[in-house]
Each structure stands twice: as C-alpha cells, then as structure tokens.
Sequence to fold (337 residues):
Amino acid sequence: MTDSAALKSQLDDFREDFKKLRAEVGKVIVGQEDIVDGTLSALIAGGHVLLEGVPGLGKTLLVRTLADALHLQFSRVQFTPDLMPADLVGTNVVMETADGRKKFEFQKGPIFANIVLADEINRATPKTQSALLEAMQEHHVTVGGQTYHLPEPFLVMATQNPLEMEGTYPLPEAQLDRFFSKLLVRYPSAADMEDILDRTTSVETPEAQPVLAGERILELRTLARQIPIADEIRRHAINLVLATHPDNALATEMVKRFVRFGSSPRGAQSLILAAKISAILDERYHVSKEDLQTAAHSALRHRLILNFEGQAENISTDEVIHDVVKSVKPVGEVVHS
Fold:
C-alpha cells in the first residue's frame, strides 16, 4: 500500500471514529450539532473548551456525556468563591507509617482526570484560576516544589453563565487565551425542545456508552496534524489573525474603531488545527480558506478585547470577526474595486 493510500485509509477511519463518537453523544444531547462537533474537534486537537450559555441548556450534560462515550476518567469541580487551589490540584497530608513515623503524602485533587469539568469557572477567585491555568498550559501541577504530571489526553471543559455576573471574577486574558475554542450554547428550537422532553420525561433515559479509548484520541490527534496546508492558506490564516489588531495594516475599519487588542499567535494555532480537522471531516486531504472561515469564530471570539467604544456600543466580538473574515482576501486573490 502506498503512503497516500495508507493515509487515505487512516483518514477514513478517522471520520468513522468521529461519527461514532458524535452519534453516541447524540443519544443524549439533542441538537447543538455545532457545539458537539466543536467540542470533539477541540478534544482531538488537544485543546480546552469554554462553553458559554444561560443555565439549563445542557452544558454540564454535554461534558458528562462526552466522558461517558470515552474510556476516560472524568471529574467535575463546582467553582465557588471559597474554592482553594488545594481543593483543585490536591495537597500534601501527614500520614503515619507502619512503624509509627510521620511522613508527607500527596493526595491528588480532582484535576487528575482526563476530562475535567470546571463548572461556572468565573465564580472562583483569581488564585484558584491561576492553579487551573498551570494545569491547562503545562499539563502538570506543582505542589510543595514537586511536579506531578496529569494523565493524557487531558481536557478542561469550562462553563460560564453570561447573564448572572454578580460575585464573579472575569477570566484573565492569559487564561482565556489557553482555551482552544469558545463555543456559544444557543437556546434549542421548538423541534429540539419536543425531542428533549420526549427523552427526559419518559421512563427510560438514554445513556452514552464508551466507544473510544484515550489511546485512540491521541492517535487521531497525531493524524490530524499530518494534514498538509498550502503556504498561501497558512498565510491567509496569519492575515486573519493580524487583521484583528487595530494597529496592523490589515485591520478593518471596524477593528480600528472597536478593538483594543487582537488575537495572540495561539489564535492562529487553534485556527489551523480546527481547519485541518474540518478538512478531514469534509473528506478532503488539504486545508481550504473555507475551513479557516468556518473555524474563525470559535477560535478567535475569546481572544479579542474590545475598547471602551466597542463595549459602549454593545458590539460583539463575533461581529468583528465576521467583518474580518469578509474583508480579508486570501493571498493571491484579485480584489475587484
């Protein structure tokens, strides 16, 4: 079998496994196809996900269902103002040995899991959020000068409520930047509501069964990174990110007027990885500009900081990204005046 034929076979298996996982999650989660696909893409890409939506839309259920559909360890942490870093990462406790002597022994916290649900993440203090930040970025925690590595794959899925902001601590930009994507959970349609009620008010409640192991997720992650991207498409991704900076020559008028700071280079990394997975799912073996445009909102919306005028005008970062995607032409494309 040639290298290209072998890769084609591997990508066919990739799609089958993705569809299998999507279908298993779909047994419990009604609708929200974009959210499910975005979450699965982040898992495969090796990034973390921030889910934003009002209570009752199934954010927590989605995370729990994803854990049920995988042979992975799951833990849930309810973030509150009194949650301390030790409650999250663990701490050294004094233990007595068989001969009566005392020794310190590390007791692992709930962060030591493959999938960690950080529920209402913006309710914890910055001190606790900084402990989570180390785990998200480095995939290890440090306690008492000792470093402890987290299991792989490791995924943090955080939820936050955009409405009830009393007693919350907005996530610092450095932590927001560590999220691979930010997904907005919308209210279900009338048809989806009917399906939800049918599933949740009858005698039997559907449950997801494990269909993939952690080792397979890591294999899919490696495979996704092998998808080639042409130089002009990579440059287009770079230009999309540069155009979010108000002081860059590529910035649109909307960016110059309403944006204070644009996306970091991590935005370009997320954009390209998400586009590679999008290409595989669309049965292509290369990244297109459409893949980048599809991934732009989830990859960049949490990485833009609006200025005072943008906030006063109630401009959303999605509006800005839409303007950037529409205005920035692919490299080599002729612009007709």
Notes: The CA atoms of residues 34 and 183 lie 9 Å apart. The chain has a mean pLDDT of 83. The domain at 1-82+114-226 is CATH 3.40.50.300 (Rossmann fold).
